[in-house]
Amino acid sequence: MDARLAGDPCRLRGRGLVGHHELGSSLVSFDAVAPESGLELTILVELTAEGLVAVRGTLTNTGEPGYQVDEFTLSLPVPARADEVLDFAGRWGVERFPQRRQMGVGQHRREGRHGRTGPDAAYVLHAGTHGFGYAAGEVWAVHTAWSGNHVHQLERDLNGHQALSGGELLLPGEVRLGSGERYSTPWLYFAHGEGLDQVAGRFHEFLRGLPHAPSAQRPVTLNVWEAVYFDHDAARLLDLAERAASLGVERFVLDDGWFGSRRNERSGLGDWVVSGDAWPDGLTPLIERVHDLGMQFGLWFEPEAVNEDSDVARAHPEWIMQPAGRLPVQARFQQIMNLSVPEAWEHVFSQVDAVLRENRIDYVKWDHNRDLVDAGTAPHGRAAVHEQTLAFYRLLDALRQAHPHVEFESCSSGGSRVDLEVLRRAERVWVSDIIDPAERQRMLWWTGQLIPPEFQGSHVASGRSHTTGRWHDLGFRAATAVFGHLGIEWDLAQASEDELSELAWWIHWYKTNRDVLLAGRVVRIDLPDPDTYFKGVVTPEKAIFSVSQLSASPLGNLGMLRFRGLDPDARYRVTAIDRQPIPPANRPPWEAAPVELPGRVLMQAGLRCPQLLPETAVLFELERL
Ligand code: GLA
Q: Which of 167, 465, 495, 570 could lock 436 by a disulfide, CB 3.0 to 4.6 Å apart?
């Protein structure tokens, strides 16, 4: 524990430990007091059934008012032999980009100051033994479960002592403790495993054990954003819904643009009232048609955001987060609603609640598209990111409680609010705004270091990626997307008949296999070429693997694909799904008809990798006989 308190001359480093209580077989509370300072400290440590160590601290001021908490991080020791560090960096569109280096003396400290989890969050900070991989090497990890400013850190001293830590990053003056007041840190989750897959597996099992965890039967979705953007033409959207349903889609999500004066990015955000201009008959005709077609209906909100050109901002400019005397620089033409102002919170709650009460809505896509910069409370401008983060949780919790049948997605510009605290109250994250499958191979792979496939929104978009401009055929787009919670984000009116029938085939295949894809254990396997992704999801009955190559390999053929996670003593029937334009003569013979092999052979000798064209993927179904 390392608490830095303005006004307290000492650092509380475990001073005055007065005892600990076992609160259950796996929950212990450590209590410490510093009577001369009037401070009490409680640290809860829980060993979860999945083998995570969850830690949270609470500091109480039992004395006079006057403490300001500047930092309160919690640490666990890690052996010195863990001398390589792996975590993530990134930016919008390049979320969860891995970075790895040798650890030396000093700190590897990662700060997130976006006021949301951020596209560049360290995400999971690992320390491992030399050369650790997916299945080998000892790995220790920490995740700070917090959707505001936060810290992840590995620190090593000259004696080889080393610790992983995390906590909230507090801005000056955000937390002041009056008499009897307390501050609690976020939950930190520590993990240890043989290789990265075991660490990831513990996080996956933890999420799968939460009461609201989605089942593998979750509905295939169509999100309209890249299909229509702000063109909310009712006839066009009804047509899209019909086309989606005919392909087997099970949930239809109406994105940004249905409310207030929101006909483009510059206006209307914050006015959560169905637009009479865009929807003169309200949303009901579309919602009813979607339900009649057998699909669920989802709706987009960005409850923490506001355009200055909106009714709410005109009526209550003081509800916008701001330093004293001026508004922050706009981002995406928007500002942030200060949910720590009770009236602002109440306003947003009642508007969103009314839309959910007055319409049959099954799903909410909850966005959050700008960083919290100069995020203070008017008129004094005191920093309020801490309060805003708590108010966001309260808002989402209250809406969930009022609408228990509604599922929520954490979007945030795609991928900027992915953490275990938001996932206590969301059933899905939108992994990234980049749907290009060549980027998504990496993103799904590494987003999976914390969250399992069923929580990862994973869409098939149009042939030409709207964000990168690259073209990909449907085989690669679909073979990539099926390793998550599948959706379509494509103007189906522009798709050819061949594309539509191929898409229907993939949707059917996905539904047949989602029990495996969304419930299995995830394994990742290194191949000699770093630009390849070889991974699988494994259940006792069946496994599905994918091999994908992003650029022409200097190595030529990648050699033998040695599968992992199978039962060595069972026999498997292996079927390939290879949609590459390669003549039969150039394909391995086992692609022409399924082969049957023992798990031991598949894992130890493997199958020869098919020829892979750049930016393609081949799938393997391994059915246990
Ligand atoms: C963000 C989301 C997108 C879409 C747009 C709408 O960028 O990530 O999926 O919802 O906002 O403005």
A: 465
Radius of gyration (C-alpha) of the chain in whole angstroms = 25
Catalytic site residue from 8, 271, 419, 433: 433
C-beta pairs of 13-16 under 8 Å, 24+ apart in sequence: none
For 530, residues 6+ apart whose C-beta sits below 8 A from its C-beta are none
| pLDDT tens by residue, 351-366 | 999 999 999 999 999 9
Q: Hunting for tokens 């299945």 — which residue is that?
A: 135
Ligand 1 pocket, residues with Cβ under 6 angstroms: 225, 255-256, 300, 367, 369, 411, 413-414, 430, 433
Buried (b) or exposed (e) across 205-221, using 16+ Cβ within 10 A?
bbbbeeeeebebebbbb
Contact at 8 Å (CB) between 411 and 429? yes
Q: What are the beta bridge partners of residue 335?
A: 306
What mean pLDDT comes out for the span 288-306?
98
Please name the residues in contact with 419: beta carbons below 8 A apart, sequence gap of 6 or more: 117, 121, 123, 143, 144, 145, 146, 147, 450
Place of tokens 């390589």: 84
| 3-state SS, residue 503 | helix
Q: Read off the pTM.
A: 0.96
Q: Is the pLDDT of residue 556 over 90?
A: no
Pocket-testing residue among 258, 369, 371, 429, ligand 1, by greatest number of atoms within 8 A of Cβ: 369
CA 391 to mean position of chain CA atoms? 20
Candidates 246, 245, 262, 342; CA nearest to 302 is 262
At how many degrees (to 10) do helices 385-402 and 342-358 cross? Answer: 30
Task: Assess whether the previous peptide bond of 379 is cis (omega < 30° from 0).
Answer: yes
Give CA–CA dist 375/339, Å, rounded.
11
In the chain, % helix, strand, coil (3-state, to 5) comes to 25, 35, 45
Q: Is the pLDDT confidence value at 19 over 70?
A: no
Atom of ligand 1 nearest to the CA of 300: 10
Q: Atom 11, ligand 1: which residue's CA is nearest? A: 413
What does DSSP assign to residue 205? H
Output the six-digit token pair for 475: 């085989």
Alpha-carbon gap, residue 56 to 42, rounded angstroms = 8
d(CA 358, CA 296): 16
> pLDDT by residue (tens digit) across 192-219?
999 999 999 999 999 999 999 999 999 9
Nearest C-alpha neighbor of 492 from the set 479, 507, 482: 507
DSSP, collapsed to helix, strand or coil, labels residue 285 as: helix
CA distances from 243 to 56, 217, 236, 252 (A): 49, 21, 11, 11
Closest CA to 303 of 338, 265, 252, 341: 338
Total H helices, total E strands in the chain: 12, 36
- Backbone φ and ψ for 141, nearest 5 degrees, come out as -145, 155
Interval between CA 604 and ligand 1 midpoint (Å) = 45
Distance 413 CA to ligand 1 centre (A): 6
Residue type, 618: V
Distance between CA 341 and CA 316 in Å, rounded?
A: 11
